């Protein structure tokens, strides 16, 4: 009892000490937080019977500043802006990474790994999302567009995604390049994907199970340069006047 009373008293009587304490904690608050990444690392399977998920993650140590870890980039204030680990041999659940801990994350690139589970819906500030060539399953979450209105480059190709391309994707008004090729997507292509994406330049949805007609609204996508829709069950025509805008259209565009 006596020691704790004394500690309190000395803290109260020592404003200098209090000042030090508060400045230390605010400095920590500015740095990238390591624990969400370390917690995710601990959920990944070790590679090749070793005890590490990937040699790339050897630098992910609490003793080192998070912003110096491989694959991690930060802004000037120390917030994580990029996680890029293409082909790092990662095996494990993508959802085990708590994206809510990275409000400044603009780029996530995990192409060519073996992450599993569903596409996380709580990624808020992403502009570049490349999850191509993994083993992700489930549907494209309906809540994704509402969370990431600034998305420009979305690559979910070569996974095991099912279900429709939700019309809410069209809420991502900045979209430039959209790639969902080589999944198991079904349903129709909603016209809003052509009318609401004024910047769309590349639209790749080949090798899925999409059905129905090609929406005539495709003529509203005036910046479209590359369109791949083959290996689906789609029918319809691409307006001739628009084909002349697309250098690659005639070569790339074919139907089953
Ligand atoms: C990816 O992980 C899944 C599930 O753990 C496994 O079935 C599959 O064989 C893995 N693929 C590769 C290429 O390692
Ligand atoms: C973020 O989403 C994942 C699943 O996608 C979930 O497991 C996690 O609890 C969510 N985190 C927060 C803070 O909402
Ligand atoms: C992700 O990384 C791969 C390999 O470096 C690269 O080819 C690809 O363009 C990157 N994706 C994005 C969206 O930057
Ligand atoms: C995935 O698509 C984006 C555009 O959406 C592109 O920048 C990136 O290079 C693609 N990644 C791979 C591995 O091809
Ligand atoms: C779409 O993703 C595949 C990889 O799965 C890649 O080969 C292709 O180049 C991508 N398209 C674009 C426009 O990046
Ligand atoms: C699509 O284009 C047509 C003709 O250019 C135009 O009349 C129409 O308003 C456009 N629709 C949308 C939703 O942008
Ligand atoms: C480096 C590495 O292991 N890459 C693998 C990532 O996962 C994909 C698909 O699961 C494999 O094809 C890559 O070889």
TrEMBL record:
<dbReference type="InterPro" id="IPR001611">
    <property type="entry name" value="Leu-rich_rpt"/>
</dbReference>
<dbReference type="InterPro" id="IPR013210">
    <property type="entry name" value="LRR_N_plant-typ"/>
</dbReference>
<dbReference type="InterPro" id="IPR046959">
    <property type="entry name" value="PRK1-6/SRF4-like"/>
</dbReference>
<feature type="signal peptide">
    <location>
        <begin position="1"/>
        <end position="27"/>
    </location>
</feature>
<keyword id="KW-0732">Signal</keyword>
<dbReference type="Pfam" id="PF13855">
    <property type="entry name" value="LRR_8"/>
</dbReference>
<keyword id="KW-0433">Leucine-rich repeat</keyword>
<protein>
    <recommendedName>
        <fullName>Leucine-rich repeat-containing N-terminal plant-type domain-containing protein</fullName>
    </recommendedName>
</protein>
<keyword id="KW-0677">Repeat</keyword>
<dbReference type="InterPro" id="IPR032675">
    <property type="entry name" value="LRR_dom_sf"/>
</dbReference>
<dbReference type="Pfam" id="PF08263">
    <property type="entry name" value="LRRNT_2"/>
</dbReference>
<dbReference type="GO" id="GO:0016020">
    <property type="term" value="C:membrane"/>
</dbReference>
<keyword id="KW-0472">Membrane</keyword>
<feature type="domain" description="Leucine-rich repeat-containing N-terminal plant-type">
    <location>
        <begin position="37"/>
        <end position="75"/>
    </location>
</feature>
């Amino acid at each position: 009892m006596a020691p704790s009373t004394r500690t309190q008293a000395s803290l109260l009587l020592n404003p200098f000490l209090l000042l030090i304490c508060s400045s230390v904690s605010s400095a920590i608050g500015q740095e990238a937080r390591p624990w969400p990444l370390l917690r995710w690392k601990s959920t990944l399977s070790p590679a090749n019977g070793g005890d590490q998920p990937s040699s790339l993650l050897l630098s992910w140590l609490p003793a080192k500043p998070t912003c110096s870890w491989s694959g991690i980039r930060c802004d000037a204030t120390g917030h994580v802006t990029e996680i890029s680990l293409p082909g790092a041999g990662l095996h494990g659940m993508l959802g085990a990474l708590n994206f809510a801990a990275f409000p400044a994350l603009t780029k996530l690139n995990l192409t060519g790994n073996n992450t599993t589970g569903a596409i996380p819906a709580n990624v808020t500030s992403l502009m570049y999302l490349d999850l191509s060539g993994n083993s992700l399953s489930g549907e494209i979450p309906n809540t994704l567009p509402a969370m990431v209105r600034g998305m420009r480059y979305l690559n979910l190709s070569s996974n095991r995604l099912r279900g429709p391309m939700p019309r809410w994707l069209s809420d991502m008004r900045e979209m430039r390049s959209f790639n969902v090729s080589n999944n198991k997507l079904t349903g129709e292509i909603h016209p809003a994907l052509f009318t609401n994406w004024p910047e769309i330049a590349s639209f790749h949805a080949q090798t899925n199970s999409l059905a129905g007609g090609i929406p005539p609204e495709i003529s509203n996508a005036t910046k479209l340069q590359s369109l791949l829709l083959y290996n689906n069950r789609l029918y319809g025509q691409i307006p001739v006047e628009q084909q002349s805008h697309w250098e690659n259209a005639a070569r790339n565009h074919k139907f089953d």
